[in-house]
Specification:
heterodimer; A: alpha+beta; 5-stranded antiparallel beta sheet; globular; B: 5-stranded antiparallel beta sheet; 23% helix
């Protein structure tokens, strides 16, 4: 794929801040839909067996799950236009069950599509410049990025041009279409990591060197799943001009030395762990030195052309503080709570970043009805230049809202059940679909999230507890990122029953850490009690200004473990 | 061949829409209560053989035997919680899946 051709007329009313397909992109996606339509026809006719067909459907994001097929739609670096969000809603209405599930890879999953309808769904996606390519299989998956990209105050550079560059480089890359295992890349350009780059196969952090030049700190070998690892720095400063060649070298080393004999040892994290980062770095640098880098030579014009798609929208010059906002907060305390919890500072004075929580108390984390999707699309046009983001925390971000308009936006969201003021709090739980939908799951995860959310339904209590990330996975594959939850919960099968292991101290940011196990598993019914004990102990022990993770680090895992043991009944079984 | 411990039924997914199906006396059923039950290893093997032919005929995918218990009404119910989920639908959305159509019990 190439960047948008400036000679091609821009779509009317298109947001100015997102990548747009050129004729080549559009033709490529259309051809891919036609190809899959033919593959489905051959499957239904019997010309293809399921064994032959499975790789084709997976390459197009179509899985077979517990109750039905599941289609995973790619949302590159989590950025959506209002038009695309409306189309996702229309697809949910026409071909699914009027809702969708936003995932920890910033994608969207439909849980009930029919195989026979999938080509039509993909065609409907292609019409709005979307697809489901490389959302499955042993290839480079959807490149994710900081969901505050381009608007965060702590940002060195918007990571989306880099992410788009990588998307184009990795799409259908012939060398990397049959890797030993799937491969995930995340990019951040900010001082605080909101993209969990340390637990990706490759994490990129945009940095400046002493001369003020932009480059990349390259982290490799992070990952969750059965064997979790925090990534290690392989390149301290890779100049932008060398980025593609450097990543190509990493991928070649992985392709050459990564294990293919055992799928549980095939991710690059295992290679890095077994060889050691120094050997990996030496191998990458040797490959980089000897390879023909001319084909990856950096074209600053091309990069700038892509970057131009992500230019800031036409902001107005506004005062840093909105008097309207101040007045509305005083008049309406529940709105003030929403602003305090779900609104983040914007790099432009007078604007704000709004996190729309998809975690209502007792709800299904990440689910949105088609009607809610339309409300969000409308709200993004009315209040924020028609752009939305999906966060890996399974929430929706409106990245450019005037502070003056926050109250009006809140009323719109509240009417649609989208104004839960819990971003980053104990009920803002990341959860995979678990055994309610997923054929790989060993236990349910959504009901656990719902039970915890209900237990902490008092919002003032949640605010007193402060930032606390609970993350739940329904199997060892860790789609719910439980390893990096301050409190992590893993659902397993134990003697024919669902059982839940709890970990503490996980951290998805630059100070990444894998959580430590609290003890043997507990039953589903016991989980909320155990979490409440942990939280109460934290509240009793915390010092001024501490978040949960700070207290846990200061006093240590053993104290938490010991405290739970002393609690008796519920804790004794941990 | 593993030892035969419990009565079994044959579960599959419909090729065209992915819906969970159960082999009944006269073909695939959407309701597990009408599933044909294998009461010994030979009957289970016969179910499996039928399943393989149905895969080859492009009617179903992902076919396997599941252990069940027989209720007082003579109807089979899966023993494992995973298959219990499959005969109903998502436990967090009672308005979806077989449970919504009243097919599950």
């Amino acid at each position: 794929m190439t960047a948008h051709d400036p000679r091609v007329a821009q779509r009317p009313n298109a947001p100015t801040t997102t990548y747009r397909y050129d004729e080549f992109d559009a033709a490529f996606v259309r051809e891919r839909v036609a190809e899959f339509r033919e593959q489905v026809r051959r499957r239904l006719s019997g010309a293809l067996t399921e064994e032959e067909f499975r790789p084709f459907r997976l390459m197009n994001g179509l899985y077979l799950q517990l109750h039905a097929y599941m289609l995973r739609v790619a949302i590159p670096y989590g950025t959506l236009t209002a038009r695309q969000m409306r189309r996702l809603a229309d697809i949910a209405d026409k071909w699914d069950k009027r809702y969708g599930h936003f995932t920890t890879r910033q994608n969207l999953q439909y849980n009930w599509p029919k195989l026979v309808d999938t080509p039509d769904i993909l065609e409907a996606l292609a019409e709005v410049e979307m697809h489901a390519i490389q959302t499955s299989g042993n290839c480079i998956r959807n490149v994710t990025a900081d969901h505050f990209a381009g608007v965060a105050r702590d940002e060195i550079e918007d990571p989306r041009p880099t992410a788009e560059f990588l998307r184009q480089w990795s799409s259908l890359h012939p060398e990397f279409s049959f890797l030993p295992r799937k491969f995930k890349i995340a990019v951040t350009g900010a001082a605080h990591d909101r993209a969990a780059i340390m637990v990706h196969d490759i994490g990129l952090r945009i940095v400046k060197n002493g001369a003020g030049e932009i480059g990349y700190q390259v982290v490799v070998g992070g990952g969750l799943g059965r064997s979790p690892f925090v990534g290690k720095i392989v390149g301290e400063f890779v100049p932008r001009a060398d980025l593609l060649a450097y990543l190509e070298a990493i991928m070649r080393v992985y392709n050459r030395f990564g294990r293919r004999d055992n799928k549980y040892k095939a991710r690059i994290k295992i290679l890095v762990h077994e060889k050691g980062i120094d050997d990996i770095r030496a191998a990458v640098e040797a490959e980089f030195a000897q390879m023909d880098r001319s084909v990856f030579s950096h074209d600053p014009e091309e990069f700038q052309r892509i970057a131009a798609f992500f230019e800031p929208p036409p902001y107005e010059a506004l005062p840093a503080e909105s008097q309207k906002l101040r007045a509305h907060k005083l008049e309406t305390p529940v709105f003030a709570n929403f602003v305090d919890v779900n609104v983040s500072p914007h790099k432009i004075d007078g604007y704000a970043i709004v996190t729309v929580s998809l975690k209502p108390i007792g709800g299904v984390p990440g689910d949105a009805t088609s009607e809610q999707m339309r409300v969000l699309a409308d709200a993004s046009e009315r209040f924020g230049f028609g752009e939305l983001r999906v966060s890996h925390e399974q929430n929706i971000i409106l990245p450019h809202v005037k502070q003056d308009e926050l109250f009006n936006l809140w009323r719109v969201l509240d009417a649609a059940g989208l104004a839960t003021a819990n971003a980053g709090l104990v009920s803002d739980i990341i959860s995979c679909p678990g055994l309610d939908y997923c054929s790989l799951a060993t236990a349910r995860s959504i009901p656990i999230a719902q039970a915890i959310s209900k237990r902490f339904s008092d919002m003032s209590r949640q605010r007193r507890i402060g930032k606390l990330g609970i993350k739940i996975s329904g199997c060892i594959n860790a789609c719910g990122h439980h390893h990096v939850g301050a409190i992590g919960i893993l659902g397993l099968e134990k003697k024919g029953q669902e059982s839940y292991q709890i970990t503490l101290g996980g951290d998805p940011t630059f100070s990444a850490a894998i959580g430590e196990l609290l003890g043997p598993g507990v039953t589903a019914d016991q989980v909320p009690d155990v979490i409440e004990h942990i939280v109460d102990f934290y509240l009793a022990e915390r010092q001024e200004g501490e978040q949960f993770i700070d207290t846990w680090r200061r006093i240590g895992h053993t104290r938490f473990k010991g405290a739970l043991r002393r609690e008796g009944e519920d804790g004794a079984d941990i | 061949m593993p030892a035969f411990k419990h009565p079994q039924i044959l579960i599959a997914s419909n090729l065209t829409d992915g819906e969970v199906l159960f082999l009944g006396p006269a073909g695939w059923e959407r309701d597990h209560r009408r599933a044909r039950v294998a009461n010994n290893a030979d009957e289970a093997a016969a179910l499996e053989a039928f399943g393989k032919r149905e895969i080859a005929a492009n009617r179903v995918v992902d076919v396997y035997l599941a252990d069940v218990e027989i209720g007082a009404d003579g109807a089979p119910t899966p023993l494992h919680y995973r298959e219990k989920m499959r005969v109903k639908g998502p436990s967090v959305r009672l308005d979806l899946g077989k449970q919504a159509a009243g097919e599950a019990r």
